[in-house]
Structure formats: structure tokens, C-alpha cells
Amino acid sequence: LEAEKAAADARAAREEAEKNLREGIRPIVIPTQAQFRATKLRLQYRKDLFHFAIAGIAGSGKSSLINAFRGLRNKDRGAAPTGIVETTSVVARYPDPNPANPFVWYDVPGAGTLSIPDWQYFTDQGLYIFDCIVVLFDNRFTATDVAILRNCARFQIPTYIVRSKSKQHILNITQDMLDGDEDMADARVAAKEQYIRETRASVARNLKSAGLHDQQVYMVDKETLVQVANGKHPREFIDEWVLLRDLLGEARRRR
């Protein structure tokens, strides 16, 4: 009788899980203590360092952003490899070259290149061990980005939402605005304002629809960020200064 009851319970649990998946309700995956230890060992987690993960879909510019945070251009020695196709198949570790920054930056494979559902991406990549996670997107906010943020909230991991390639996006809007009589400088100012306004509204809308708290979105360009990371003062910027200040502040606060 007990065996029959156990089999019936298992069958009911399986049917409930299948029903939830059909209805879009994702299971909550909680790693065990053994998984925590194994993941920290695999990713060389050290108590004396602060560990940033850069996550997002393939092609969002994660490797370029890590290079910029470390004050490197993509062609510099020691830079994370970049390319048109996703170059990262496993989580890659990059210590900060500045001795004043006891940080390690991690390049997490883009979810679009992996044959796992978005809700499983967080656990499979070991994102639960990190001290802070930057969720990077280029054109649009995705279900994977939302899944990462939701899991970070569950594990109480601070997150920063960053939109990359801002100069190119602003240039595209500028070109759309230009007509025969339009002044290039005026169009660029208007395009930048439109880009900032639309990006903030889009992220706020996506967070609200996902039932997540509103939070700031940082718009950056890798070339500007490299200059800021190296202590230079670029003529044009959006959120590069603020992002770097907030990330460094987060690291120093939590250490």
C-alpha cells in the first residue's frame, strides 16, 4: 500500500510540474550546499575578492564591456576575446589589472547559444555565487534578462541593468531624423534625448509586466567607458561615469 501511495504521489507531482510548464509557471531551482561549494571551486571564487558577472543574451557585447570595465580596448593584450559570433562557451574569469581594484570580472555565455530554457540558465551557469550581476542588453530586454533579475532577487544579489552600444543606437536614430533642412548637431541632441527616454520607458515597462521592482538602466558605450575607467574625461557620455561609480561603490560597500 505504501509503495502504491508513493507511486501515486510521484505521478501527481509529475503531472503538476508538467501542467505548470504548459502554463508558463517555471519551477524554482535551489542549488544544494554541495553545488554552492563545487561552483565556487570551479569559478575560483575567493573571499578576499569581489566577483562581478556580466550576463545577457549572445551578441549583447559582454566581452567588450568586461574589457572596458578593466580599462582595456578589445585589441589590447589581456583583453577578453570578442567577435561577431558568441565567443564564450563556458564562464570565463578576468581579474582586474588595477591593483587598487580587488575585483574579478566574469564573462557568462549568452543564453541564446545554449540549449537550456531561460529559467535554468541562472542555475546552470552558477550565477548564484556572484557578489553582483550586470544584466546587459543591446536592442531589447528579453525573457532571459527578466529570469536573471528574478533569480537575483531570490538570492539577494545586487543587479545593474546596462544597455550597450549606445553611440550606434543614437547614430541610427539621428540618421532617421535627418532630412534636407535638419542640422546634424540638433538632430544628434534630439536623438540622444529620444534614446534615453525610450530606453528608460521600455525597461520600466518590462520590469512592471514581470512583477519586478523598477530600477535604473545605465546606457553606455564601450569606447567612452574605457576612457572613464582610465581616468580620462570624454567629451560625450551618458551613464558611464555613474555606472562605474555605482559598481565600485557596491564592491567597496559589500567587502
Description of the structure:
The chain has helices at residues 2-22, 33-42, 62-69, 118-124, 143-155, 166-177, 184-209, 222-229, 240-254, and strands at residues 50-55, 92-95, 103-107, 132-137, 159-163, 217-219. By secondary structure, it is an alpha/beta fold. The chain has 2 domains: 1-26; 31-254, P-loop containing nucleotide triphosphate hydrolases (Rossmann fold, 3-Layer(aba) Sandwich). Helix 3 (62-69) packs parallel to helix 8 (222-229) and helix 4 crosses helix 5 (143-155). The longest helix has 26 residues, at 184-209. The model has no long low-confidence stretch (mean pLDDT 85).
Report a brief summary of the structure.
Helix content is about 45%, strand content about 10%.
DSSP, total strands: 6
How many H/I helical runs?
9
Task: Summarize the helix and strand pattern as letters.
Answer: HHEHEEHEHEHHEHH
Q: In which order are the strands of the major sheet placed?
A: 2-3-1-4-5-6
Main CATH class of the largest domain: Alpha Beta
**CATH fold-level name of the largest domain:** Rossmann fold
On the 0 to 100 scale, the average pLDDT is: 85
| CATH architecture classification name of the largest domain | 3-Layer(aba) Sandwich
What is the structural class?
alpha/beta
* Total of domains: 2
Proportion of residues in extended strands: 5-15%
GO molecular function: GTP binding; hydrolase activity
Keywords: GTP-binding, Hydrolase, Nucleotide-binding
InterPro entries: G_IRG_dom, Immunity-related_GTPase-like, IRG, P-loop_NTPase
Organism: Fomitopsis schrenkii
